[in-house]
Structure formats: structure tokens, C-alpha cells
Amino acid sequence: MDISRTIRGISISGVQTGDKTENIKDDLNRHLHTTLAKDFYVATERDYYMALANTIWERLSTRWLRTQQQQYLSDRKRVYYLSLEFYMGRSLSNAILNLGISDSVQEALYDLGLSLEDLEEYESDAGLGNGGLGRLAACFLDSMVNLNLAATGYGIRYDYGVFAQALRDGWQIEEPDDWLRYGNPWERQRQELATPVHFYGHVQVDHEGRRRWVDCHTLFAVPYDTPIPGYMTNTCNTLRLWACRAPRNFDFSIFNTGDYINVS
Q: Would you state the torsion angle of the CA atoms of residues 102, 239, 124, 20, taken in this order, to the nearest 10 degrees?
């Protein structure tokens, strides 16, 4: 059902987010209590980081949506940049700088007894690559958004895109860097756009000449969108990364026999 024909009074123009110190303080306090369901007695510094990230996200999202609407309505030519890596760096400090609200955020946090430098340390570096290829891709996205080009980056949402180094018994070892263990407040999952990806199998032709891909292994590619803001510009482009997910097929007949390993 297309409910867009019946919806009234819903518009991004009705969303107001102020950039003054008091606005930042009020929104951070609101997100701590309503989005995270934490209060002063149990909140950790990581919770305050998440509350601040959601506060900044609100301001990013309005710019992001307006950019998408403007690009769609003007039917502009678009650039799609594909890369195996996107070394974007940390999003919090970049978003605050590009939105031009550094002073307001610093003052708001000072009034609340918090430090931006301390909160920034709770953001994990996105494990999406650490070589020159990833840095180059990030620079391209930054350049295109600052030139007000309608551009989208496409890549892979790695769970373990980089590794962490540690010393054990005097030896350097590599360990998985689980950068998503606490979630990523800067992305939004687009489950409705999940796409099946088939491997192996063969093409079967029926009696009417129609072809079907059968006996294949299927995985799902699920997109996650991240806004890429420009510096002191209203343009905010998109980085879309695809995560790999197994199909959710659950066979109760197998489950009931006790074969829990092969149930899905």
C-alpha cells in the first residue's frame, strides 16, 4: 500500500534543530534519557558519547534528507564511486567541524562538565580499510561533497576490516578489531533494500523457455547508509556499505529432531 497519498503534515521542513549552546545541551540531555534510557546515576562516558553522537546526527540528518530531495527533484547527474576500502576516520569530530558548530558543542559540554576530547576517544575507527586505497576513496568523497556534486560511495561493510595489535609474552600478535561491538550511531540500516546474492548452482530451463537459477547458495547484501557532510555547505552525500547476512530460513522439522546445527 502506498501511504504517501494519505500522509499530511509530514515534512523535513517541520524539523527544527538549533545550533546554539542551549540547543545542544537540551538535545544531549534528551537523548541520554529517551534514546539511551539512562540517567545521571548510571550513565557512563560512553553513554554521553552516544548521546552527543545522536545530537549531532539530528543536525546531519536534516541536511542529508534535504540534499537527497534536492538532487532527486533537480534530476542531476550522479557519480557512483566503488571502492574496496573507505578509510573515513572518526565521524564525530568531522561532523561537528563541517556543521560549523564547534564552539557551541564545546561550550555545551563544558557547561555539563564534559570534555569533547574525552568523548571522542569512545568512537572506534571504522574498520573499513587502512591503506592508501581507503584514504584516497575518503578524499574523493570529501572533495565531491564540497564541490556540491551528487555522489555516492559504494563498498563493503566489513565486520573485521582491520586487525588490532597486541604484545603477549614479548611477541606481537594480531587480533580481530571488533569496531562494531558497541554499534555505530553514524549509520542507518536499510533492511528493505536487502538484495539476494547467489553462488554456485546452475540455470534450469522450463518447458516454456523460462530460465531459473537453482541449487545455489544464497546470501543477502544489506545496505547501511552513512551521511558524508561537506564543510560549511548544505550538501550531504551518502556512503552506502553492504553487509553480508545469511538467509533466515528456519526448518522446524529439523529443529524438532534435535539437529540444531543444520536447522538453518
A: 20
What is 65-95 written as a DSSP string? HHHHHHHHHHT---EEEE-S------HHHHH
Residue 187, CA distances (Å) to 12, 143, 165 in order:
19, 21, 26
Spatial distance between the Cα atoms of 145 and 186, rounded to a whole number of angstroms? 17
| Dihedrals phi, psi of 47, to nearest 5 degrees | -65, -40
Task: Tell me 135's DSSP state.
Answer: H
pLDDT digits (tens, 9 = 90+) for 214-263: 999 889 999 999 999 999 899 999 999 999 998 876 566 665 676 655 65
Q: Which helix (H) or strand (E) holds 155?
A: strand 151-156
Q: Three-state SS across 172-237?
A: EEEEECCCCCCCCCCCEECHHHCEEEEECCEEEECCCCCEEEECCEEEEEEEEEEEEECCCCCCEE
> What is d(CA 80, CA 89) in angstroms, rounded to the nearest whole number?
21
Give every CB contact of residue 195 below 8 A, 6+ residues apart in sequence.
Answer: 220, 221
Asked if residue 189 lies in contact with residue 134, where contact means CB atoms within 8 angstroms, the answer is: no
Domain 16-161+173-194+221-245, what fold? Rossmann fold (3.40.50)
- B/e letters for 121-149, b = 16+ CB within 10 Å, e = fewer, are ebbeebbbbbeeebbebbebbbebbbebb
Domain boundaries, the chain: 16-161+173-194+221-245
Query: Please, are residues 225 and 190 in contact by the beta-carbon 8 Å criterion?
Result: yes
Task: Give φ, ψ of 102 to 5 degrees.
Answer: -60, -45
Element (H, E) at 59: helix 45-74
Residue 36 backbone dihedrals phi, psi, to 5 degrees: -95, -15
Q: pTM (2 decimals)?
A: 0.87
